[in-house]
Known about the structure:
Oligomer: homotrimer
Strand content of chain A: 15-25%
Largest sheet of chain A: 7 strands, mixed
Order of helices and strands of chain A: EHEHEHEHEHEHEHEEEEHEH
Strand order of the largest sheet of chain A: 7-6-5-8-9-11-10
Number of helices of chain A: 9
CATH topology of the largest domain in chain A: Rossmann fold
Amino acid sequence: MKKILIQFDTDAMPSCFDRVVAVDAGVDDLFSYGGISTENVVGLVHGAIFTRGPGSLKNTAIFIGGSRVADGEAILRKVQASYYGPMRVSVMMDSNGCNTTAAAAVVAAAQHLDISATRAVVLGGTGPVGHRVAQILASQGANVRLVSRSAERAAETCDLIRTQTESGTLEPAGAATVDELLNCCHGRELVVAAGAAGVCFLPTGVLSQLGDAAVAIDLNAVPPVGIADIGVTDKAKVIGGTTCYGAIGVGGIKMKIHRAAVASLFEANDRVLDTPEIFSLAQNIQNA
Amino acid sequence: MKKILIQFDTDAMPSCFDRVVAVDAGVDDLFSYGGISTENVVGLVHGAIFTRGPGSLKNTAIFIGGSRVADGEAILRKVQASYYGPMRVSVMMDSNGCNTTAAAAVVAAAQHLDISATRAVVLGGTGPVGHRVAQILASQGANVRLVSRSAERAAETCDLIRTQTESGTLEPAGAATVDELLNCCHGRELVVAAGAAGVCFLPTGVLSQLGDAAVAIDLNAVPPVGIADIGVTDKAKVIGGTTCYGAIGVGGIKMKIHRAAVASLFEANDRVLDTPEIFSLAQNIQNA
Amino acid sequence: MKKILIQFDTDAMPSCFDRVVAVDAGVDDLFSYGGISTENVVGLVHGAIFTRGPGSLKNTAIFIGGSRVADGEAILRKVQASYYGPMRVSVMMDSNGCNTTAAAAVVAAAQHLDISATRAVVLGGTGPVGHRVAQILASQGANVRLVSRSAERAAETCDLIRTQTESGTLEPAGAATVDELLNCCHGRELVVAAGAAGVCFLPTGVLSQLGDAAVAIDLNAVPPVGIADIGVTDKAKVIGGTTCYGAIGVGGIKMKIHRAAVASLFEANDRVLDTPEIFSLAQNIQNA
Lengths: 288, 288, 288
């Protein structure tokens, strides 16, 4: 029986990136839908769950993507609410690559640090990727300082993460100027920048002032990047004693995680691959 | 040469249900178009008929679907009008599953009754599925009472069916209240409810009053169903002496018919699979 | 690794014609996008180039189609501007079949004439197909008279072609009436009509007056055709001493060129198949 992946993309044009990865992950038939909203997902899910017998449903799965992460999260809830008991298919959410990117960043850091004993700081921590990086780090026992321009939003995100994992410790912080941001980085072995496109947190020449940072990762693929001293293709490049990764530098790990996650959807018909599940998969790849 | 199925769907999102069935019917490449209307079908049909030699055209076929059956019928006419003599491909129309559902209902009934000697009643007989159930029953020699809230529309549909088949007998009836509907069912061995979603013809507890009904079939998959005593998953379940089927209860047969019909498109390049052809195929499956 | 073709179509419904040809050219997975504009192409190209390693990128390619040729040309430029150095994939432009049709016309003519020694006339020479026929003929050393209703636009197109090829000679001409058009055809061994749909240049009975024309080709597939004496299916049919081809008459060659061009995209990751490259491919097919 052919492996069918149904791509729900909230953008008008379903992501070409996600389509190529699906093919390379071994999907036989890919149904790509663009312009998906919570309004039109139920009928499509019913088409997915009512066309094959319960024993064969593991050969059908759903992938949720698109540039708007909050919309992807709403679609994921709607998809799960459309199942009927055992009539369900596995589903993965990776809007804007948020989960695979966050997982790849932590996997990269874990090659140099014992995450459970690490004091980390996440700049841009209230955005979809930053939130997930902080969530994964905390789930592995790290002490995480989550930074946003708004201290209030940083606190809200920390509260949310505490409902998602009981491990680690979370500490919100508000910071807007370079000095404030540098202050937040003091005493942190791991610095992750996960801001929106176009937001530069730390300008050129500042990296050397992160005296305690053993590892610095910038997840912005489009210049200007968040930590200007890091190049997008840097991969474990040591700059002034700090091991640095750019967005493309963690891209190889990210691609492996993405492909493995899609492939794993077809092992059962009840998988829900969101942040913790995708990180767990990433760890298995790393340890293999 | 690869088997290509071109899906013309009148809904914005091409049916996921029809796509999975196409894959499972052995289609190699599926071209799914949503938002199809009679305005944009000609160029696509020309693309289908002018790309492979006459001897190879049986490897290309068209499937017409979507929730609006009247639109599907118009598309079917337009597709056929776009052919050039022998430059044509096989085509199947099953908007909203109307033909495969109607065929499945009659096949289910025929496991318990000699249709040619059956007095049947079709509630909701002017809708797309009800119309087709009545048409198929008449074509097999049954005496069919076709019921609608409007006696006038029931008469119009009977007239239309008489142009589609010369067999059987048709008798229109108007009925709105439960008493009127029960009256229409008196003396009928087969009762089929094919109303629109949300329309309940016979409330709970009434089934036992259908004294003559050997078989009762409700084709509404979403509660409230048309005959409240029947469950959607009932499959030849005997309730008070009447053998009952719900929509999902005939779903297994429907799926087999759907798959077989799609597969048969690729046996020649000139098949037109509408109500009679799909029922004929359903009979062959049943007898095999 | 599977061969993926990404179809960028400027029409709302991606061409069914181009999809069938892609399948028959050996493409494993076809990603079809309709409604493509220069606004939405960059993200899709990045998805194409950043998902497979440099050594594997030859297994991904882009096909640009749709009815509006100028839009297709703009998309081609945008696609090429979206590459990053070696991170690129092969791309073919054939909006409205302009390149494969023009190449097929010249290949057909070359079966009867030495193009380098031919005096040719192209009616409707400023349209996308006429322009390309004239360009290819000039590139092969022909003397080309390019005819349009507007002498000024004919001159502009000739100037443009002179920037595209240094071979051959080009001579613009304005002609609107049948007499003026016939005048333009005098002394020409090859007459190609490449007007817009519905434009008839030479009415019935006029072909015999083209005394010098050894070959006449009409590329309009929908009646009324440009040279009324030629039938759309004529293929090397001799009419009054002139060897004639209609649009479907060159269709067999066109299809071979189209399939071969798509297949050749996957030989490397840096092919750009536009007019000269597609004609070069067409010659290889012809000589094989």
